Structures are given as structure tokens and as C-alpha cells.
Amino acid sequence: MPRPLPVALAQSEPLPAGAPVSRFAEHVEDVLASFPGTRMVIFPELHLFGSRVRPAERDAELAATAQPLDGPLVRQLAELAGDLGVWLLPGTICERGDGGALHNTALMLSPEGELTASYRKVFPWRPYEPYLPGDRFVVCDLPGAGRIGLSICYDAWFPEVARHLAWMGAEVIVNPVMTTTADRAQELVLARANAIVNQVYVVSVNTAAPTGTGRSLVVDPEGRVRAEAGEAATVLTDVLDLDDVTRVRRHGTAGLNRVWSQFTDADRPIDLPLYQGRIDPGRWRPAGASPE
């Protein structure tokens, strides 16, 4: 049976650091007024934390405006999601963690007005970002739809992130981005590659020009680009059928490649010296996937 998930990708310029949540709320309300069937609204990385790109200015601004997860900003954002009755991913926030450490953290806020999941960027863009890396991967269940995995911008360059999220059962990987540099073209390739090798949807939402380079996109579990924006501010919409992930994994990409059914009971584990571990065929399939 289809499991539709209507999404809206709000490719836009960041708001000034410290801008009132009411200003952001107006934008979310405008998106929902234009696309009333939307179930999930997604904004770019650090959307609420300013547009400065020079490190000295940016780092000082981030340190001054960082917020804890139990602070007023997250509470107001959760209330907004509850008032509007949607899943809201407001980009990422600069989180102030233990000991004053800064984290680049994605939030998943529920239609019930709750912080359902938070994910700290595991791969900050070194040496340019001041964040302490996260130490775990995060997925979130959407009742009636499926499981969402969270990654942030540069995480997409590390195949271990997408692979681990897919192994944890993610059917969609949401990747908010604030790319202001010339490598957006490579990120588009990575979005398709991560979708193909893991048989998941990939949703990449970038900051709009002139601050960012735009080109947000939605990729299906076989690597086809379903929708792609230009560089200007816009809202990209799509309806993801998460049952398409089940179909592709059962019958194969292009009806051929069933990467999650690769191993047989007779296959031996494969040592992975890079990770001081191994692939165990008995643990290969994604969480919740039934053996074929």
C-alpha cells in the first residue's frame, strides 16, 4: 500500500541571527498556505542563525546566539509545529551543549508540538566550522509514513553516514545544507549516489542565492532526480511514496540490484580493517526489513 509523505523544501536565505521566531513562523505559514497538503516542511542548515560567511564574524555570532535544546528557541519552534500540525525541520540550530560546546544540530519537531529527535552533525566541515562533532546517528519514525534519517550538509560526503542511517531503517534521508561554495555540483552527485547505494530517498535542502548556491533536490530510491530547484529562493514540493523503498529493495534497482539481499547464509563475515570491525552477513539487512 502507498505510504505518501507530502514534503515542502523551503530553499531560502537565512534569517538574521536572533530574529524573532514570529518572523520564521510567517514563512512556514506562507508555505502551508500555498501547499496545504504538506505534511513535512524542511529548511536549510542554520537557517535561523544568520548569513555571515567570514569565519571570524560567523563564529562570534554563533557563540553569542547558541541555544540549548531545552531553551526558549526550541520550545517556541515545537509550539509552532504543534500549532500548524506539521512535521517541522527548521534547518539546524547552533546548539550550546555541555560545558558550553557548540554543536550543529538538526531538529525534528512533531505535529503534537514535541521535539521528537535531534541530531548533532558528526562531520563538521573542517577546518571551517567551530562545532564539536556528534557521536551518534539518528532516525525518527513518522506514524503512517515511515522512518526518516537525519544528516547535515558535509555528512553527505561520508558514505558511512547514509549507510548507517539506512541500516537503522531510514527510508528517507533529510540533509539540510548551507553550501555557499563551488562544490554544490559534487553534492548533487553525492545525493544521487547515496540514494542509489542505499535504496532510499534523499532530500537535500540548500540555502538560496545570493548567500547560498541553491539547487535543492529530491532523489528517489533508484537515484532519479524527482525535483530540483535553481539558485533563487523557492519552495520545492513533492509527495514521497515511502513504499517505493520497499519495492526497490524487494525487486532491485532497475529490477536488478538487490543490495540489501546480497548475502546468503553460507557467506562468511568480511573483515573491515579500516574500522577494526567487519560486515556480518547476519546483520546486513536494514532494521525492520524482512528476509527475502
User: In order across it, which strands form the biggest sheet?
Assistant: 7-8-9-10-11-12
Report the structural category. alpha/beta
Gyration radius (Cα, Å) is 19 Å
Total strand segments: 15
Low-confidence stretches: none
Helices, by number, come to 6
Which percent bin holds the helix content? Answer: 10-25%
Regarding CATH, which class?
A: Alpha Beta
Helix/strand order = EHEHHEEEEEEHEHEEEEHEE
CATH-assigned homologous superfamily: Carbon-nitrogen hydrolase
| Number of separate structural domains | 1
Instruction: Return the CATH topology.
Output: Nitrilase/N-carbamoyl-D-aminoacid amidohydrolase
Mean pLDDT: 94
Largest sheet: 6 strands, mixed
Indicate the overall shape: globular
Describe this structure in words.
This protein is of the alpha/beta class and about 290 residues long. It has a single domain (about 5-265), classed as Nitrilase/N-carbamoyl-D-aminoacid amidohydrolase. The chain contains 6 helices and 15 strands. The protein has helices at about 20-35, 55-65, 70-85, 160-165, 185-200, 245-250; strands at about 5-10, 40, 85-90, 90-95, 100-110, 115-120, 140, 145-150, 170-175, 200-205, 215-220, 225-230, 235-240, 270, 275-280. The strands form 4 sheets. It has a 6-stranded mixed β-sheet, with helices on one face. Strand 4 and strand 5 (about 100-110) form a beta hairpin. The longest helix is centred in the middle third of the chain and has 15 residues, at about 185-200. About 40% of the residues are buried.
